[in-house]
Amino acid sequence: MVLVCKTGGAGDDERWKEELRRLMPDLEIRDWPDIGDPAETEFVLLFHSAPGLFEGMTGLRAVLSAGAGVDGFLGDLPAGVPAARLVDPWMQTAMAAWAVHAVLHFARNMPAYAAQQARGVWREQFEAYFEPRRVGILGCGEIGRRTGGALADLGFRVSGWTRTPRDLDGLENLHGAEGLDAMLAGSEFLVCLLPLTPGTEGLLDARRLAQLPEGAFFVNASRGRVVVQRDLLTALDSGRLGGAWLDVAEPEPLPPGDPLWRHPRVRITPHVAGVTNPVTSAALVAENIRRARAGEPLTHPVDRNRGY
Ligand code: GLV
Fold it and tell me: Distance between CA 139 and CA 62 in Å, rounded?
């Protein structure tokens, strides 16, 4: 059984192969692009597609995502071939921890204290908050619920936005277009965890960013293209937004001259909020390979119409 691997950007390549070989000793792993006869490929494990990647793969049984998001290959997915998302509790925990850290960074005035330290200033930034502060989570799948739950435990008032109504394990749910308006108007901290789909691309434009309360903070661990980056920059420049922590950008890497790099209100990390851990993820991929071979439905199947 042949698996073509192109995991770049979603976990350590060598570790992926090591774990998969351990779990499936009869698996023959071929590294893209040295894949021999493409007709022998039964499975593809990937994060980002490449031109012609699926060409000649006439025996393809399933495509497995090496990352949480499937936007990197969905457009190239051959018709009729099932694909699965990677839903790894390890990654959910990692992303929730990252997002909580980003929210706390702004909520507890860390930028101001860093600036004070640089000048040797010991001065309390008075935190005039007598009620729970409000966080809106855009995108409340497994990762969003985990993040929202953690922030609620830390005393924030959290609401989660979804396309359609959802039970969010005790978090307030806002949904649809009206729900989005309400969420933006009420979010002092907006955490974006949406998948990139035709419906979410450019969702956060100037008009929507202007719906946030004055001085709100924006945290993005989804995809750069969910926000119109020049509109974000304008909102930051004017002080309309109090700050942003961006783990994702468009393009990636963010070009060296991009004004976001040196913006005083912006923190940037290079797409590290939830890096795939092959040690925990390989077992999930192996299970889907087993299912595909047994003719069983995949876990966490990609819904092409929904876009993730
Ligand atoms: C990271 O962005 C992922 O989709 O896993």
Answer: 26
